[in-house]
Design goal:
With 469 residues, the chain is mainly β. The chain folds into 2 domains: 29-376, YVTN repeat-like/Quinoprotein amine dehydrogenase (Methylamine Dehydrogenase, Chain H), CATH 2.130.10.10; 383-468, Immunoglobulin-like. The strands form 9 sheets. Strands 1, 2, 3, 4 and 34 form a 5-stranded antiparallel sheet that branches. It has 1 helix and 42 strands. It starts with a helix and ends with a strand.
Protein backbone atom coordinates (compact mmCIF):
# COMPACT_ATOMS: atom_id res chain seq x y z
CA UNK A 1 0.00 0.00 0.00
CA UNK A 2 1.30 3.43 -0.94
CA UNK A 3 2.37 5.49 2.09
CA UNK A 4 2.09 9.14 1.05
CA UNK A 5 3.68 10.43 4.25
CA UNK A 6 6.71 8.18 3.80
CA UNK A 7 7.01 9.24 0.15
CA UNK A 8 6.88 12.93 1.04
CA UNK A 9 9.48 12.42 3.75
CA UNK A 10 11.81 10.64 1.32
CA UNK A 11 11.25 13.29 -1.35
CA UNK A 12 12.13 16.07 1.06
CA UNK A 13 15.39 14.30 1.89
CA UNK A 14 16.22 13.84 -1.80
CA UNK A 15 15.35 17.35 -3.00
CA UNK A 16 18.77 18.86 -2.17
CA UNK A 17 20.50 16.11 -4.15
CA UNK A 18 18.13 16.52 -7.09
CA UNK A 19 18.67 20.27 -6.97
CA UNK A 20 22.46 19.85 -7.11
CA UNK A 21 22.24 17.23 -9.84
CA UNK A 22 20.36 19.50 -12.22
CA UNK A 23 22.21 22.69 -11.36
CA UNK A 24 25.79 21.45 -11.08
CA UNK A 25 26.70 21.99 -14.77
CA UNK A 26 25.75 25.65 -14.47
CA UNK A 27 28.09 26.03 -11.52
CA UNK A 28 31.05 24.15 -13.02
CA UNK A 29 34.20 26.20 -12.64
CA UNK A 30 34.92 27.93 -15.93
CA UNK A 31 37.49 30.21 -17.50
CA UNK A 32 37.44 31.86 -20.92
CA UNK A 33 39.54 31.02 -23.98
CA UNK A 34 40.01 33.53 -26.82
CA UNK A 35 41.55 32.97 -30.24
CA UNK A 36 42.54 35.34 -33.02
CA UNK A 37 41.77 34.57 -36.64
CA UNK A 38 44.32 36.88 -38.27
CA UNK A 39 43.02 37.53 -41.77
CA UNK A 40 43.55 40.17 -44.43
CA UNK A 41 39.76 40.56 -44.73
CA UNK A 42 39.60 41.59 -41.05
CA UNK A 43 40.63 40.18 -37.70
CA UNK A 44 38.05 38.03 -35.93
CA UNK A 45 38.08 37.09 -32.26
CA UNK A 46 36.52 33.80 -31.15
CA UNK A 47 35.56 33.18 -27.53
CA UNK A 48 34.75 30.04 -25.52
CA UNK A 49 33.81 29.19 -21.97
CA UNK A 50 36.14 26.53 -20.54
CA UNK A 51 34.85 23.82 -18.24
CA UNK A 52 37.81 23.58 -15.85
CA UNK A 53 37.03 19.96 -15.00
CA UNK A 54 36.50 18.43 -18.45
CA UNK A 55 38.12 21.00 -20.74
CA UNK A 56 34.95 21.23 -22.83
CA UNK A 57 34.66 24.46 -24.83
CA UNK A 58 31.32 26.22 -25.25
CA UNK A 59 31.11 29.06 -27.78
CA UNK A 60 30.35 32.40 -26.14
CA UNK A 61 27.31 34.35 -27.27
CA UNK A 62 28.10 37.23 -29.62
CA UNK A 63 31.31 35.78 -31.04
CA UNK A 64 33.17 35.98 -33.33
CA UNK A 65 33.83 39.67 -32.74
CA UNK A 66 35.27 41.71 -35.58
CA UNK A 67 38.28 43.71 -34.44
CA UNK A 68 38.10 47.43 -35.10
CA UNK A 69 40.60 47.20 -37.94
CA UNK A 70 41.96 44.62 -40.37
CA UNK A 71 44.66 41.98 -39.95
CA UNK A 72 47.08 40.23 -42.25
CA UNK A 73 47.52 36.50 -42.78
CA UNK A 74 51.22 35.83 -42.16
CA UNK A 75 53.15 33.33 -40.05
CA UNK A 76 53.19 34.48 -36.42
CA UNK A 77 51.78 33.17 -33.13
CA UNK A 78 51.79 35.89 -30.47
CA UNK A 79 49.35 38.54 -31.71
CA UNK A 80 46.93 38.08 -28.82
CA UNK A 81 47.35 38.16 -25.05
CA UNK A 82 45.21 38.46 -21.92
CA UNK A 83 45.86 40.60 -18.84
CA UNK A 84 44.24 38.33 -16.21
CA UNK A 85 44.64 40.80 -13.35
CA UNK A 86 42.69 43.62 -15.02
CA UNK A 87 40.63 41.34 -17.29
CA UNK A 88 41.69 42.85 -20.60
CA UNK A 89 42.20 41.30 -24.02
CA UNK A 90 44.81 42.64 -26.48
CA UNK A 91 44.93 41.99 -30.24
CA UNK A 92 47.56 43.14 -32.75
CA UNK A 93 46.08 44.32 -36.06
CA UNK A 94 49.10 44.14 -38.34
CA UNK A 95 47.17 45.31 -41.42
CA UNK A 96 46.66 48.76 -39.88
CA UNK A 97 49.57 48.81 -37.39
CA UNK A 98 47.33 49.05 -34.32
CA UNK A 99 46.40 47.19 -31.15
CA UNK A 100 42.75 46.66 -30.19
CA UNK A 101 42.13 46.49 -26.44
CA UNK A 102 38.98 45.10 -24.82
CA UNK A 103 37.67 44.80 -21.29
CA UNK A 104 36.35 41.31 -20.44
CA UNK A 105 33.09 40.87 -18.57
CA UNK A 106 34.01 38.27 -15.93
CA UNK A 107 30.44 36.98 -15.68
CA UNK A 108 29.82 36.37 -19.40
CA UNK A 109 33.17 36.51 -21.20
CA UNK A 110 31.85 39.30 -23.45
CA UNK A 111 34.40 41.88 -24.60
CA UNK A 112 33.99 45.67 -24.95
CA UNK A 113 36.51 48.05 -26.59
CA UNK A 114 38.45 50.17 -24.10
CA UNK A 115 38.07 53.99 -24.47
CA UNK A 116 41.55 54.36 -25.99
CA UNK A 117 41.28 51.45 -28.44
CA UNK A 118 42.76 51.06 -31.01
CA UNK A 119 46.36 52.11 -30.17
CA UNK A 120 48.52 53.26 -33.09
CA UNK A 121 51.91 51.55 -33.38
CA UNK A 122 53.44 53.27 -36.37
CA UNK A 123 54.61 51.60 -39.57
CA UNK A 124 56.13 48.14 -39.24
CA UNK A 125 55.49 44.42 -39.08
CA UNK A 126 54.24 43.91 -35.50
CA UNK A 127 54.53 40.30 -34.43
CA UNK A 128 54.48 39.81 -30.67
CA UNK A 129 52.58 41.43 -27.80
CA UNK A 130 53.16 41.03 -24.05
CA UNK A 131 51.61 42.66 -20.98
CA UNK A 132 53.37 43.24 -17.65
CA UNK A 133 52.01 41.08 -14.75
CA UNK A 134 50.57 44.25 -13.18
CA UNK A 135 48.78 45.16 -16.43
CA UNK A 136 51.16 47.94 -17.48
CA UNK A 137 53.23 48.45 -19.53
CA UNK A 138 52.05 46.72 -22.69
CA UNK A 139 54.86 46.06 -25.19
CA UNK A 140 54.62 45.21 -28.90
CA UNK A 141 57.62 43.94 -30.89
CA UNK A 142 58.52 44.73 -34.50
CA UNK A 143 59.84 41.90 -36.68
CA UNK A 144 62.53 43.90 -38.50
CA UNK A 145 66.17 42.95 -37.91
CA UNK A 146 67.66 45.72 -35.76
CA UNK A 147 64.04 46.60 -35.07
CA UNK A 148 62.19 48.15 -32.14
CA UNK A 149 59.59 47.55 -29.46
CA UNK A 150 56.84 50.00 -28.49
CA UNK A 151 56.02 50.36 -24.78
CA UNK A 152 52.72 51.85 -23.55
CA UNK A 153 51.56 52.76 -20.06
CA UNK A 154 48.02 51.44 -19.68
CA UNK A 155 45.31 52.87 -17.38
CA UNK A 156 41.54 52.22 -17.46
CA UNK A 157 41.08 55.23 -19.75
CA UNK A 158 44.42 55.88 -21.50
CA UNK A 159 47.31 54.28 -23.36
CA UNK A 160 50.40 56.51 -23.41
CA UNK A 161 53.69 55.79 -25.14
CA UNK A 162 56.54 55.53 -22.63
CA UNK A 163 59.24 58.20 -22.74
CA UNK A 164 61.85 57.12 -25.28
CA UNK A 165 59.58 54.61 -27.01
CA UNK A 166 60.21 52.92 -29.42
CA UNK A 167 63.26 51.13 -27.99
CA UNK A 168 65.89 49.44 -30.17
CA UNK A 169 66.35 45.67 -29.82
CA UNK A 170 69.77 45.66 -31.51
CA UNK A 171 70.74 42.80 -33.83
CA UNK A 172 67.61 40.74 -33.42
CA UNK A 173 63.97 40.75 -34.51
CA UNK A 174 60.79 40.59 -32.46
CA UNK A 175 59.02 37.29 -33.09
CA UNK A 176 58.80 35.99 -29.51
CA UNK A 177 58.66 38.04 -26.32
CA UNK A 178 58.13 37.44 -22.60
CA UNK A 179 58.25 39.28 -19.29
CA UNK A 180 60.01 37.64 -16.37
CA UNK A 181 57.55 36.22 -13.83
CA UNK A 182 57.97 39.22 -11.52
CA UNK A 183 57.86 41.71 -14.42
CA UNK A 184 61.34 43.10 -13.72
CA UNK A 185 62.74 42.10 -17.13
CA UNK A 186 61.52 41.80 -20.72
CA UNK A 187 63.08 39.61 -23.45
CA UNK A 188 62.45 39.65 -27.19
CA UNK A 189 63.86 38.26 -30.42
CA UNK A 190 64.01 35.19 -32.52
CA UNK A 191 62.90 35.37 -36.13
CA UNK A 192 66.18 36.68 -37.53
CA UNK A 193 69.74 36.50 -36.23
CA UNK A 194 70.84 34.41 -33.25
CA UNK A 195 70.34 36.86 -30.39
CA UNK A 196 67.89 37.58 -27.59
CA UNK A 197 67.50 41.19 -26.45
CA UNK A 198 66.89 41.93 -22.78
CA UNK A 199 65.64 45.00 -20.90
CA UNK A 200 64.93 46.02 -17.34
CA UNK A 201 61.41 47.39 -16.95
CA UNK A 202 60.13 50.39 -15.02
CA UNK A 203 56.52 49.32 -14.48
CA UNK A 204 55.46 52.83 -13.46
CA UNK A 205 56.79 54.70 -16.49
CA UNK A 206 57.01 51.88 -19.03
CA UNK A 207 60.61 52.86 -19.77
CA UNK A 208 62.89 50.02 -20.91
CA UNK A 209 66.63 50.02 -20.19
CA UNK A 210 68.90 47.73 -22.20
CA UNK A 211 70.60 45.14 -19.99
CA UNK A 212 74.39 44.91 -19.90
CA UNK A 213 75.59 42.68 -22.75
CA UNK A 214 72.27 42.73 -24.62
CA UNK A 215 71.52 41.37 -27.13
CA UNK A 216 72.69 38.00 -25.81
CA UNK A 217 74.06 35.32 -28.14
CA UNK A 218 71.77 32.29 -27.96
CA UNK A 219 74.17 29.79 -29.54
CA UNK A 220 71.68 28.98 -32.28
CA UNK A 221 69.91 30.70 -35.16
CA UNK A 222 66.48 32.31 -34.73
CA UNK A 223 65.64 31.27 -31.16
CA UNK A 224 61.83 31.27 -30.71
CA UNK A 225 59.15 29.89 -28.36
CA UNK A 226 60.28 31.58 -25.15
CA UNK A 227 59.34 30.33 -21.72
CA UNK A 228 60.55 31.87 -18.43
CA UNK A 229 60.23 30.19 -15.04
CA UNK A 230 60.07 31.65 -11.54
CA UNK A 231 63.83 31.41 -11.02
CA UNK A 232 64.47 33.55 -14.11
CA UNK A 233 65.58 30.74 -16.43
CA UNK A 234 64.71 31.34 -20.09
CA UNK A 235 64.07 28.48 -22.54
CA UNK A 236 63.93 28.67 -26.34
CA UNK A 237 64.16 26.49 -29.46
CA UNK A 238 66.45 27.36 -32.39
CA UNK A 239 65.89 26.75 -36.11
CA UNK A 240 67.54 23.33 -35.95
CA UNK A 241 65.04 22.47 -33.20
CA UNK A 242 67.49 22.27 -30.32
CA UNK A 243 66.33 23.56 -26.94
CA UNK A 244 68.57 26.14 -25.32
CA UNK A 245 68.30 27.10 -21.65
CA UNK A 246 69.71 30.16 -19.89
CA UNK A 247 70.07 31.26 -16.31
CA UNK A 248 69.81 34.95 -15.42
CA UNK A 249 71.50 37.20 -12.88
CA UNK A 250 70.13 40.75 -12.69
CA UNK A 251 68.44 39.87 -15.97
CA UNK A 252 71.65 39.00 -17.81
CA UNK A 253 71.37 35.65 -19.64
CA UNK A 254 74.01 32.92 -19.42
CA UNK A 255 73.75 29.58 -21.31
CA UNK A 256 73.58 26.48 -19.09
CA UNK A 257 76.38 23.96 -19.32
CA UNK A 258 74.41 21.22 -21.08
CA UNK A 259 73.17 23.30 -24.04
CA UNK A 260 71.76 22.37 -26.50
CA UNK A 261 69.12 19.75 -25.68
CA UNK A 262 67.27 17.54 -28.18
CA UNK A 263 63.61 18.41 -28.71
CA UNK A 264 62.36 15.73 -31.10
CA UNK A 265 60.50 18.46 -33.00
CA UNK A 266 60.74 19.25 -36.72
CA UNK A 267 59.57 22.86 -36.23
CA UNK A 268 58.73 25.22 -33.39
CA UNK A 269 56.56 28.25 -32.82
CA UNK A 270 55.27 29.11 -29.32
CA UNK A 271 56.50 28.20 -25.83
CA UNK A 272 55.38 28.38 -22.20
CA UNK A 273 56.26 27.08 -18.74
CA UNK A 274 53.72 24.89 -16.99
CA UNK A 275 52.26 26.46 -13.81
CA UNK A 276 54.05 23.92 -11.59
CA UNK A 277 57.38 25.10 -13.11
CA UNK A 278 58.46 21.54 -13.94
CA UNK A 279 57.78 21.49 -17.68
CA UNK A 280 58.58 23.52 -20.81
CA UNK A 281 55.94 23.14 -23.55
CA UNK A 282 56.40 24.01 -27.24
CA UNK A 283 53.97 24.18 -30.15
CA UNK A 284 55.54 22.15 -32.97
CA UNK A 285 54.11 24.18 -35.87
CA UNK A 286 54.13 22.18 -39.15
CA UNK A 287 55.00 19.04 -37.19
CA UNK A 288 51.37 19.22 -35.98
CA UNK A 289 52.48 18.34 -32.48
CA UNK A 290 53.41 19.60 -29.02
CA UNK A 291 56.70 18.93 -27.27
CA UNK A 292 56.75 18.62 -23.46
CA UNK A 293 60.07 18.69 -21.60
CA UNK A 294 60.96 17.95 -17.99
CA UNK A 295 63.09 20.69 -16.41
CA UNK A 296 65.60 19.29 -13.92
CA UNK A 297 68.54 20.61 -11.94
CA UNK A 298 69.31 24.18 -10.99
CA UNK A 299 71.53 26.98 -12.21
CA UNK A 300 74.19 26.04 -14.74
CA UNK A 301 73.35 22.35 -14.14
CA UNK A 302 69.82 22.78 -15.52
CA UNK A 303 68.79 20.05 -17.95
CA UNK A 304 65.79 19.60 -20.25
CA UNK A 305 64.52 16.23 -21.50
CA UNK A 306 61.43 15.11 -23.41
CA UNK A 307 58.78 13.40 -21.30
CA UNK A 308 57.55 9.95 -22.30
CA UNK A 309 55.59 10.10 -25.57
CA UNK A 310 56.72 13.62 -26.54
CA UNK A 311 56.08 15.13 -29.02
CA UNK A 312 52.33 14.57 -28.95
CA UNK A 313 50.30 14.71 -32.19
CA UNK A 314 47.56 17.35 -32.08
CA UNK A 315 45.22 16.00 -34.76
CA UNK A 316 45.13 19.50 -36.25
CA UNK A 317 47.10 21.30 -38.96
CA UNK A 318 49.99 23.54 -37.80
CA UNK A 319 50.20 23.81 -34.00
CA UNK A 320 50.75 27.52 -33.54
CA UNK A 321 50.01 28.70 -29.98
CA UNK A 322 49.38 27.24 -26.51
CA UNK A 323 47.42 28.02 -23.35
CA UNK A 324 47.27 26.13 -20.04
CA UNK A 325 44.32 26.45 -17.66
CA UNK A 326 44.58 27.87 -14.15
CA UNK A 327 45.17 24.54 -12.38
CA UNK A 328 47.62 23.20 -14.96
CA UNK A 329 45.46 20.21 -15.85
CA UNK A 330 44.44 21.24 -19.39
CA UNK A 331 46.40 22.30 -22.47
CA UNK A 332 44.77 24.08 -25.42
CA UNK A 333 46.50 24.18 -28.82
CA UNK A 334 45.56 26.71 -31.51
CA UNK A 335 45.93 25.02 -34.89
CA UNK A 336 46.82 27.75 -37.37
CA UNK A 337 45.83 26.25 -40.72
CA UNK A 338 42.94 23.94 -39.75
CA UNK A 339 41.49 26.82 -37.68
CA UNK A 340 40.47 24.76 -34.66
CA UNK A 341 41.53 23.92 -31.10
CA UNK A 342 43.00 20.71 -29.71
CA UNK A 343 42.52 19.98 -26.00
CA UNK A 344 44.74 17.68 -23.93
CA UNK A 345 44.63 16.59 -20.31
CA UNK A 346 47.98 17.13 -18.57
CA UNK A 347 49.31 14.64 -16.04
CA UNK A 348 50.89 17.19 -13.73
CA UNK A 349 53.36 14.72 -12.18
CA UNK A 350 54.83 13.54 -15.49
CA UNK A 351 53.88 16.15 -18.10
CA UNK A 352 52.33 13.45 -20.29
CA UNK A 353 49.43 14.61 -22.49
CA UNK A 354 46.35 12.44 -22.96
CA UNK A 355 42.58 12.45 -23.61
CA UNK A 356 42.93 14.47 -26.78
CA UNK A 357 39.85 16.08 -28.31
CA UNK A 358 39.92 18.11 -31.52
CA UNK A 359 37.36 20.62 -32.79
CA UNK A 360 36.16 20.18 -36.36
CA UNK A 361 38.32 21.91 -38.96
CA UNK A 362 37.22 25.49 -39.69
CA UNK A 363 35.45 25.86 -36.34
CA UNK A 364 37.27 29.22 -36.17
CA UNK A 365 36.42 30.36 -39.71
CA UNK A 366 36.88 29.14 -43.26
CA UNK A 367 39.66 31.59 -44.17
CA UNK A 368 42.53 33.22 -42.29
CA UNK A 369 45.03 31.83 -39.77
CA UNK A 370 44.88 31.34 -36.00
CA UNK A 371 47.77 33.54 -34.88
CA UNK A 372 46.97 34.19 -31.24
CA UNK A 373 45.50 32.69 -28.09
CA UNK A 374 44.56 34.08 -24.68
CA UNK A 375 43.13 32.51 -21.54
CA UNK A 376 41.35 34.22 -18.63
CA UNK A 377 41.12 32.11 -15.45
CA UNK A 378 37.83 31.46 -13.72
CA UNK A 379 36.47 34.90 -12.95
CA UNK A 380 33.97 33.69 -10.35
CA UNK A 381 36.05 31.41 -8.18
CA UNK A 382 38.81 32.83 -6.00
CA UNK A 383 42.23 31.27 -6.53
CA UNK A 384 45.10 31.09 -4.06
CA UNK A 385 48.37 29.24 -3.70
CA UNK A 386 48.98 26.05 -1.78
CA UNK A 387 52.56 25.06 -1.10
CA UNK A 388 55.24 24.27 1.40
CA UNK A 389 58.48 22.40 1.90
CA UNK A 390 59.56 18.84 2.62
CA UNK A 391 62.77 18.45 4.64
CA UNK A 392 64.66 15.61 6.28
CA UNK A 393 65.58 15.40 9.95
CA UNK A 394 68.57 17.70 9.41
CA UNK A 395 66.41 20.40 7.81
CA UNK A 396 67.70 19.83 4.26
CA UNK A 397 65.20 19.92 1.42
CA UNK A 398 64.11 16.64 -0.15
CA UNK A 399 63.62 16.78 -3.91
CA UNK A 400 61.55 14.66 -6.29
CA UNK A 401 58.80 13.97 -3.75
CA UNK A 402 55.38 13.65 -5.40
CA UNK A 403 52.73 15.67 -3.54
CA UNK A 404 49.08 14.92 -4.36
CA UNK A 405 46.36 17.50 -3.76
CA UNK A 406 42.78 16.22 -3.65
CA UNK A 407 39.51 17.90 -2.73
CA UNK A 408 36.71 16.37 -0.68
CA UNK A 409 34.23 17.01 -3.51
CA UNK A 410 36.37 15.10 -6.00
CA UNK A 411 36.62 18.11 -8.34
CA UNK A 412 40.36 18.59 -7.82
CA UNK A 413 43.10 15.98 -8.21
CA UNK A 414 46.48 17.63 -8.82
CA UNK A 415 50.11 16.61 -8.50
CA UNK A 416 53.30 18.59 -7.87
CA UNK A 417 56.93 17.51 -7.43
CA UNK A 418 59.32 19.09 -4.95
CA UNK A 419 62.29 20.92 -6.43
CA UNK A 420 65.88 20.11 -5.34
CA UNK A 421 65.41 22.33 -2.27
CA UNK A 422 62.25 20.54 -1.17
CA UNK A 423 59.69 23.17 -2.17
CA UNK A 424 56.42 22.40 -3.92
CA UNK A 425 53.67 24.72 -5.14
CA UNK A 426 50.16 24.63 -6.56
CA UNK A 427 49.88 28.18 -7.97
CA UNK A 428 46.12 28.66 -8.45
CA UNK A 429 43.78 26.43 -6.46
CA UNK A 430 40.11 27.26 -6.01
CA UNK A 431 39.28 28.38 -2.47
CA UNK A 432 36.21 27.46 -0.49
CA UNK A 433 36.83 23.70 -0.42
CA UNK A 434 38.52 21.21 1.87
CA UNK A 435 41.74 19.73 0.50
CA UNK A 436 44.12 16.94 1.48
CA UNK A 437 47.86 17.02 0.75
CA UNK A 438 49.68 13.68 0.63
CA UNK A 439 53.44 13.32 -0.06
CA UNK A 440 54.72 10.10 -1.64
CA UNK A 441 58.22 8.72 -2.11
CA UNK A 442 58.94 5.00 -1.80
CA UNK A 443 62.06 5.36 0.37
CA UNK A 444 60.45 7.80 2.85
CA UNK A 445 57.60 8.02 5.29
CA UNK A 446 56.31 11.46 6.20
CA UNK A 447 55.31 13.35 9.31
CA UNK A 448 52.48 14.09 9.18
CA UNK A 449 51.43 11.47 6.60
CA UNK A 450 48.90 13.95 5.17
CA UNK A 451 47.37 17.36 5.88
CA UNK A 452 43.67 18.17 5.50
CA UNK A 453 42.50 21.77 5.71
CA UNK A 454 39.89 24.27 4.53
CA UNK A 455 41.38 26.44 1.76
CA UNK A 456 40.26 30.05 2.31
CA UNK A 457 43.40 31.88 1.12
CA UNK A 458 47.09 31.37 0.40
CA UNK A 459 48.34 28.30 2.28
CA UNK A 460 52.08 28.26 1.61
CA UNK A 461 53.37 26.74 4.84
CA UNK A 462 52.11 23.17 4.47
CA UNK A 463 55.32 21.41 5.50
CA UNK A 464 56.32 17.78 5.99
CA UNK A 465 59.31 15.96 7.43
CA UNK A 466 60.68 12.98 5.49
CA UNK A 467 62.05 9.98 7.38
CA UNK A 468 64.02 7.40 5.40
CA UNK A 469 62.63 3.86 5.62
Amino acid sequence: MFDSRSFRHTLVKLLPLIFLLFLSPAYAHAGYLYLLNDDSTGNRIYGFQVNETTGDLTALTGFPVNAAVGGINNIVSERMTVDPLNKRLYVVNEGSDTVSVYSIDPSTGAITPMPFSPISLGTGVWNSIAVHPSGSPMIVANNALNGVVQSFVITPTTATAAAGSPFSVGSTAGFSSRFSVDGTYYYVGGNQGNNIAGFSVDATTGVLTTLAGSPFASGGVSPLAYGIDGSGRLFSVDNTNFIRAFTSSSGVLTPVTGNPFTSGLTQRRFGLIHPNQNFYMVAGNTGNNVGVYQISGTGAATTVAAVSGSPFATGGNTANALAVNQSGTLLFVANRVSRNVTKFAIETATGILSHQTVQSSNTLGTVGAINGIGYLPDAVAVNAQIGGRITDASGSGVGKVVVKLTSMDGMTNLTAITNPFGYYNFPAVLTGSTYTLTPMYKIYTFTPPSITFSHTGDATNQNFTAVQN
